[in-house]
Write a structure and sequence with these properties.
Blueprint (H helix, E strand, L loop, with lengths): L9 E6 L5 H13 L2 E6 L9 H9 L2 H15 L6 E4 L2 H7 L1 H8 L3 E2 H11 L4 E6 L3 H15 L2 E7 L5 H5 L3 H11 L6 E4 L11 H9 L3 E3 H12 L16 H25 L6 H21 L25
Parallel strand pairs: 1-2, 1-3, 3-4, 5-6, 5-7, 7-8
Helix pairs in contact: 2-4, 4-7, 6-7, 6-11, 9-10, 12-13
Protein name: Arylmalonate decarboxylase (AMDase)
Amino acid sequence: MGRVVPSRTTLGCVQIPSDVTLEDEGPPFAEQMGIDIQMTKVSFDSEDICAGTYLRAMQREELTKGAKTLAALAVSSGQKCDVLGLSCTSFSFTLGSAKVREQISAVTDMAQAQLEALKALQAKQVALLTPYIEELSQANAEMLESMGGFRVVSRLTMNLPTDDLTSAVPPAEIADWAVRTDSPQADVVVIGCSGFRACQPDFLDALEQRLGKPVVTSTQAFLWHMARSAGVQKKIKGSGLGVESTKMRISLSLLLLLQKTVRYVLAALQQCSELKDSDRHFIRSVTSALMQRMVEAGVIEKNDTKSHHPKHKGRILPNFNP
């Protein structure tokens, strides 16, 4: 009798018709996690990404049809969908998670995944970048505030009416917009919409390093939340969120900020002619202790204490324990 090989965990994703990004970004991440992704698209009567398009699709029970298609695909391939989700952020927050679940019994949707990711990061204040028309961008911000209790301290949107325009925005331009959207008050930068190509390998890590804080994108949060809902905890290289302890990641940002502050204060005080030698010695001791702590944490190299360039690449290393 042959050994039974267990089937891989399968994520079922209901897409909108214009979504092409998940088809490119989903499989590489799924392969790293050792899982499979089944996708199907619902039908819309318009290319416009707006509330009216979504509400009409709901009235035609397009989500229910999509869920049935996924179930049939799973049966035909000898698998089952372990979790089911709606992979469109604005569709999700326009309908609300309750209505999404009424039609497809979804475990999650992209709006809910945004909230869960921010909770995992213990964020309080966020900066929000979206590609949407103003109406939907405002709705995304309201969802984060009313349903998650997060304060949106900064928000920019590109006012793109269709997904083909959104998916055509180069990652480098997304990164530049994210930098402009960021605020010193924000704990996390949120990049909304699955149409953005913001989950390319190492893109998130590079952007987090550039910003000095965590970044949450719709596709990244969606795959992260679906995988964990299915019991898959494997780390994803280059994905930003979910690689290490998220609490530690925020601690890293605070540590880097403290480092910069100490260096600035030290430079200013060194110019003070009335500063006593004992004060100078104390300041040097504090700075040295901080640098040593960062070396022990693995944030900077031992021989890099002069330039203080972080090597964390957007995430914290496992041995960091503040």
